[in-house]
Amino acid sequence: MNPKVNPRYKGEIHRLKNTPYEKCLWHTMTCPNPAIRAHAIQNSRALEALAEDGHVVMFAPEIRGTEFGMPFKRIGRNLATTFTGLCSEHDTQLFLPIDTNEIDPANAEHRFLVAYRAVLKGLHAAAASAQMVQLSFQKGVELGEFAEDGQEMHVATTQIIAAMYMAEVAMCFHQVYVAGAWDHVQYATLMVPTAAPAIAASGVCMLTEAGLAPLRSDRPYLAFSIFPQNGQLFVEFAWLPEADAIMRRATEAILTATGDQQLYLLSKFVIKYTETFTLKPSVYESFTAPQVEAITRYFLANAAGTREEWDDPKLYLFGPIS
Description:
Largest sheet: 5 strands, antiparallel
Number of helices: 9
Radius of gyration: 20 Å
Number of strands: 11
Strand order of the largest sheet: 7-10-9-8-11
C-alpha cells in the first residue's frame, strides 16, 4: 500500500478487510438465517488427521503498516478453512452424507458433495472479493484517492465480472443438487499413497494449463479437494460437462504421474491455485527455510491471478527438501 495514501482511506481499507462477507449460499439464495463458520475442508476427519495439539498450519494474510505479508501460522483446527457462506441448518443438511460417513470415491453423491463444498467456498470467496474491491473503490472515489473512471474502476469491474462467472458455475451445481443428478458433473478421483498425512486443500480455479482464453460457454472452472483418508491422499477434480475436453487435457499430467513426481505436481498445483490449504504442523516444521521461502514466493506470484509458472523442487508440501 502506498505510504502517501490518505490515512482515512487506509483506515477504511483495514475496516473493510476485517468485515466478513456473511450470507447463506443455499441454492435458493434467499435463506435469511445467519451464516456460520462452515468448513471448506471436512473438520471431523480430514482436519483431525492433520491437527496436532488442536492446530494446523496455514497461510495467514496480514498487513503491518504499509506492508502486506503471507506468513505460515498455526491456526486452531475449528477455525481453519472456515468461510461464512452457509447457515448452520443448511451446512448440516448439505454435507451430512459425507460428514458422518467415510467418503467413498465410488459413491456418486459423495463425489458431488465433495465438489459442491469446494464450489460454495469458491462462490463465497469471489463474492467477498468483489464486494471488498468495489467498496474500497467507492470509498477511494469519495475521499479523492481515485478517479471515477480510472484504472481502479476497471479493477473493481473485473472482480465483479469474475464473481458473476463464478455464480453461473455455482448455479449449475445448485441445479445438480436439487435434481440429485450427481453424475451430471465430471470427475477424476485418485487415492495417492503417502508416507503420512501432510496436507488438505480445497478450491475452484481456471487453469492456465487449459489454454488461452477458453470460451465463457465452456465454463472452464475446476473444483478440487485433497485430503488424507485411510493412510492415503484422496484427490478429486470435478468440472461441468461443457469443460470436459479442456479439463481432461489440463489435469492429465497430474493424473498420469506416479510417486514423488505426482506429489510434486500436486504440491505445485495446490500452492498455485488456492490459499485454502492446511499442513500438519510437524510436516511444516520439517521444511527447510529455502523451501518455505520458495513456497511463499510461488504462492504470492500467483495470488493475484497472473498465474506465473516455473519449476523448483522446493515447491513440495509432503516433507523437507533442501
